[in-house]
Amino acid sequence: MIAEIIAIGSEMLTPFRQDTNSLYLTEGLNNLGVSVAFKTIIGDNLAQLTAAVRTAISRADIVLFSGGLGPTEDDLTREAVAAALNLELHRDNDIVTDLYKRYAARKLVMPPNNAKQADVLAGATVLPNPNGSAPGQYLDTVVPASDGKAHRKILILLPGPPKELKPLFDDQAKPLLAATLPPRHLARRQLRMPLIPESQVDARTAPIYQQYADVETTILAAPGEIQLHFVTAKPTLDEAQSRVDELTSRIEAEMQEDVYSSHGESLEEVVLLMLGLRHLTLSAAESCTGGLLSERLTAIPNSSRYFLGGAVVYSDALKTAFADVPADLIAAHGPVSAEVARALAEGIRTRTGSSIGISITGIAGPTPGTGPDAEKPIGLVYIALSDGHDTQVKQLNLFGDRERIRWWASQHALELIRRALL
């Protein structure tokens, strides 16, 4: 069973409003073993909306509509579905009565156009809306197809406001679907790999995941990492989970230490977990990232057990004051140098008493460095890690804008820690 979600409203085709209902509906459908294959956003145009309905019922088993059930002239969902399916709309007197009562309770006179919210598709089940004036509708019907056969389709019309849509879907539409659909259960897994090209991941994993036609595999490129998402639907959850776990295990065996997470954990979560397992602590001295690495670590609950803190040593004077970097070393090599990165990592580890010290210094742009760093390119970053026995320094030549360079520098720092802890 596949579904399509149609979000209706011209405002969602502007930069000022986003469709968030589809995310909620997708999760609810997935919990029923239904995959969402299409999402469409349509403006308040009857002809375009009618065409979108016809397209949706030609390719999906279940079609959910969000919005367009209000009383105004541009609320056209009911009319478009009726036109697409050649169905009559009839006015439900009980809904009209409830609407009058709703307005009377607020000591208001109901405008005549509100009565259109009582127009119901022939054969549809009305879904009362306790949180608003527009009821939903649930239509389980049969639609002739181009192959000459008739296909069962389920159409669900829901109001647009999230405070109305969510309870109406959960309390009324979802139970109707659960009672109708064959038992299907979705299982998901996710593998995350930092600082590795997407093409390399696919080249190594495609020969494996292509053997699992019943598992949907998606490769996503996120900032500083590649993610592999696996999902499958089976009659039982155990069967689905077993199948997706089998594929995940084979991919992990291929990628080995390139995989840092197999259940969706972030890189900072994994680093803190590894520090905890080894009873180690971490401190950081950050220059060009301005505390971004520390922010990522401290966003994780209970990180203070293993991340002691550190300093944002943006100026040369604070590199000396907070991490004991000799001023003459900075003058000789420049603040963006392997030598200063090494001294920062060693100095912050000693000053805080941590097991590991990590440092980041670089030129994030948009303007070049000054003084000793004047000839060094934007994107040049040095990261150093000191554990009290040895200090390793990594040089990076990153590209992009300031935000990208800072993020990738923090990602490289976390990965350097993870690799050291392996």
Brief characterization of the structure:
The protein is α/β, with parallel strands linked by helices and 422 residues long. It has 13 helices and 16 strands. The strands form four sheets. A six-stranded mixed β-sheet has the order 2-1-3-8-7-6, with helices on both faces. Strands 13-12-14-15-16 form a five-stranded mixed β-sheet, with helices on both faces. A three-stranded antiparallel β-sheet has the order 9-11-10.
Tertiary shape: elongated
**Secondary structural class:** alpha/beta
Mean pLDDT figure? 95
CATH class of the largest domain: Alpha Beta
Strand order in space, largest sheet: 2-1-3-8-7-6
Kindly estimate the percentage of residues that lie in beta strands according to DSSP.
25-35%
Q: From the alpha carbons, calculate the radius of gyration and give it in angstroms.
A: 29 Å
> Which superfamily, in CATH terms, is the homologous superfamily of the largest domain?
MoaB/Mog-like domain
Fold-level CATH name of the largest domain: Molybdenum Cofactor Biosythetic Enzyme, Chain A
Low-confidence stretches: none
Number of strands: 16
Distance between the termini: 43 Å
> What string gives the helices and strands in order?
EHEHEHEHEEEEHEHEEHHEHEHHHEEEH
CATH architecture verdict of the largest domain:
3-Layer(aba) Sandwich
Q: Count the helices. How many?
A: 13
- Which bin fits the share of residues in helices? 25-40%
Major beta sheet, specifics?
Answer: 6 strands, mixed
What is the number of independent domains?
A: 3
Task: Explain what you see.
With 422 residues, the chain is an alpha/beta fold. The chain folds into 3 domains: 2-180, 3-Layer(aba) Sandwich (Molybdenum Cofactor Biosythetic Enzyme, Chain A), CATH 3.40.980; 185-258, 2-Layer Sandwich (Alpha-Beta Plaits); 267-421, Maf protein (Alpha-Beta Complex), CATH 3.90.950.20. The protein contains 13 helices and 16 strands. It has helices at residues 21-31, 46-59, 77-85, 93-105, 162-180, 198-209, 237-255, 267-277, 292-298, 316-323, 327-333, 338-352, 402-421, and strands spanning 2-8, 35-42, 62-66, 89-91, 119-121, 125-127, 136-144, 150-158, 185-194, 216-222, 225-234, 282-286, 307-312, 356-362, 380-386, 391-397. The strands form 4 sheets. It has a 6-stranded mixed sheet with strand order 2-1-3-8-7-6, sandwiched between helices. A 5-stranded mixed sheet has the order 13-12-14-15-16, sandwiched between helices. α2 crosses α3, α6 (198-209) crosses α7 (237-255) and α8 (267-277) packs parallel to α13 (402-421). The radius of gyration is 29 Å and the shape is elongated. The model has no long low-confidence stretch (mean pLDDT 95).
